[in-house]
From TrEMBL:
The keyword Zinc is annotated on this UniProt entry: yes
Classification via Gene3D superfamilies: Cytidine Deaminase, domain 2 (3.40.140.10)
InterPro entries registered for this protein in UniProt: APOBEC/CMP_deaminase_Zn-bd, CMP_dCMP_dom, Cytidine_deaminase-like
Native organism: Nelumbo nucifera
PROSITE patterns linked to this entry: CYT_DCMP_DEAMINASES_1, CYT_DCMP_DEAMINASES_2
UniProt cross-references to Pfam families, sorted A to Z: dCMP_cyt_deam_1
Any one biological process term the GO annotation gives: tRNA wobble adenosine to inosine editing
Zinc is among the record's keywords: yes
Domain CMP/dCMP-type deaminase: 10-138
Protein name per its UniProtKB record: tRNA-specific adenosine deaminase 2 isoform X1
Length: 209
């Protein structure tokens, strides 16, 4: 797991502050105030904010918005699908709130290297609060600043081609469709085992032909 001390800690807080700026823009637009930035080699390459109300689309979370911005940039470079996948392994995500299960799974499938978030999501969190999409645990980032980022959390997500875990009753579902050349379709079902009361997921990834 990457170090989050000293200089790295200062950089992390700086990027988180930029994510907070995106969250403020969301709040000004009467959206749930969540924002994020994507970083490569110490530089912000994309950003996004929650736009679910504006678009009347429940999947338009800040993470999905930033991913779309980034994919559009990569498409303009004429990269192949393999090259795009390789690029994603070098990106870090900074988001003001723990990604929901849908977003955490999307980040995992895309191969995002690391995810930093500022507060837990105790209703829909996919990085440990409700389900743990990541494989290597969380690491707290301490800071003396009195700031929403003073207890940021680093989560490493594995690169998964697909993830399947069977359950008995579907209680929630999400569909995320990307229409670019490297378009991805994610079908994520949240299920409940009536015997153990365990939450499970069924995720299907389709590539557009």
């Amino acid at each position: 797991m990457a170090s989050v001390n000293g200089k790295d800690s200062s950089a992390t807080l700086a990027f988180m502050e930029l994510a907070i700026q995106q969250a403020k823009l969301a709040m000004e637009s009467l959206e749930v105030p969540v924002g994020c930035v994507i970083v490569e080699d110490g530089k912000v390459v994309a950003s996004g904010r929650n736009r679910t109300t504006e678009t009347r689309n429940a999947t338009r979370h800040a993470e999905m918005e930033a991913i779309d911005v980034l994919l559009e940039q990569l498409q303009k470079l004429g990269l192949s699908e393999a090259e795009v996948a390789e690029k994603f392994s070098g990106f870090d995500f900074y988001v003001t709130c723990e990604p929901c299960i849908m977003c955490a799974m999307a980040l995992s499938i895309l191969g995002i290297r690391e995810v930093y978030y500022g507060c837990a999501n105790d209703k829909f969190g996919g990085c440990g609060s409700i389900l743990s999409i990541h494989s290597s645990g969380s690491e707290h980032l301490s800071s003396s600043k009195a700031s929403p980022t003073s207890s940021a959390i680093l989560v490493k997500l594995p690169h998964l081609n697909y993830f399947t875990e069977l359950g008995c009753h579907v209680i929630c579902s999400f569909i995320y469709v990307h229409s670019l050349n490297c378009g991805l379709v994610f079908y994520l079902l949240i299920t409940l085992d009536p015997f153990t009361n365990q939450l499970s997921m069924v995720l299907i990834q389709d590539n557009k032909k």
